[in-house]
Amino acid sequence: MAPHVLVIPFPAQGHVTATVKLAELLFRAGLFVTFVNTEHIQNRLLGSSDPTFGRLSRLPNFRFCTIPDGLPEDDPRSLIDFARLEESLRTRSREHYRELLVPGGAGGRDAAGWPPRVTCVVADGLLALALEVAEEMDVPVMLLRSTSACSVWALCSIPKLVECGDIGIPEEVDMDGLVQGVAGMESFLRRRDLPSVIRNVKSAADSYLQFLIMINKNLSRSRALILNTTEYLDSLVLPHIATVCPVIYTVGPLQNLLRSFGSGHPSQEEDEDDGGASYSASLWQKDMSCLKWLDSQPDKSVVYVSFGSITVVSREELVEFWHGLVGSGRPFLWVIRPDMVEAGAETVPFELETATRERGCLVAWAPQEEVLAHPSVGCFLTHSGWNSTLESIVAGVPMICWPFFADQQINSRFVSEVWKVGVDMKDLCGRSVVEGMVRKVMDGGDVGEELRKSATEMSHVARRAAEEGGSSYTNFQKLVDHIKSFELTNK
């Protein structure tokens, strides 16, 4: 029987996106996969009609299971308060999760003993529940951190940041001052670049900070850490992370690795439903009409704007962005989720609506990988979430970064200062700033030319890592062998 991997993501769009890609890769490598969603997330996947869910549901050795998240059905489940959701799962869903790890539990086995007992758990690093219960049952656990490697190391550095006085930053302090508590980043990391969960806490006793310290300690308890990145992209921080968790598998970009492992596999037939173009597991219904609109635009002319699945903007911020985009004179494709704008901010000035009809396209959700790969897209105004950042790097599209939450602040600094594939606009969104940034990246000056050159080079490097013989391709094979070794040990 094939080794059986139980894969469980944190219940949020960005986490599910990365984790479902890894789960499909494990299936393509010949493993039996159980993918565990919360009931709320599973219902949203069903409602979005995303082809990824249907394709995976039809595979013979891939199954979806659900557990409750412990929250009332009408709870907004704000991901900004992610620690509350994690606590609910840890305290109220424990037995439901445990049942999935019991041989023959949660659906049982057939007469031939199928599905096989769980060999290994691959869990989101934010889910203490997944590690604790599996340890109690003597099931090996590997942790996936679906955020960036640079943010993982910054969070691991919390004790040093406390020691250096960079936790509980006073309001009057210079936010552009350099931080000394994150090894390897002393020359470029400013206070304003710290992940928001560090930057915004008032003291070292903050409950969020204590939660993160607990999560970081779990890294050293796991059998391995899995990261959606490449050895080259994060060569600056990987040696530091290895001091906390010595066994690290860098297996990104996952979407490219999927394509490398897809040829000739039994799942190829199912891929024909969507051309194998996207593996997003989207919780929102994608508006595919924007691709046709992009077809009508000149090459490298369009500004693609998306602030991801969590960012919320005020009416004032919305209008400033809008003025800046219109003032740049460039056509733009803008994703505005139904829940992205604060209540009461639905109306915009008439002149902006008129300008948008002339050269803009607004959608509630877009097929992002396809959009970024489209020849008409010239830059990406992004919230700097890790999935979006990596997808933009793969596509070779320069970025304008406006981070909002979590790892996004430090990601944007790496985009501008380390990888040099974009510009950082954090903490600013005035119309003149937005317009100026768009012109800087899109126009034919020295800055724009250098960014496009760097983005193209980085795209080639990232893609090669996921091709046969590349570092991520090889690391994924080592990961599969590691999982198989648990099965041999158990026998």
Automatic annotation (TrEMBL):
Annotated Gene3D superfamilies: Glycogen Phosphorylase B
Pfam families: UDPGT
Gene Ontology terms for molecular function: quercetin 3-O-glucosyltransferase activity; quercetin 7-O-glucosyltransferase activity
Source superkingdom: Eukaryota
UniProt-listed InterPro entries: UDP_glucos_trans, UDP_glycos_trans_CS
Keywords for the protein's UniProt record, in alphabetical order: Glycosyltransferase, Transferase
EC number: 2.4.1.-
Stated family: Belongs to the UDP-glycosyltransferase family.
Protein name: Glycosyltransferase
Organism for this UniProt entry: Iris pallida
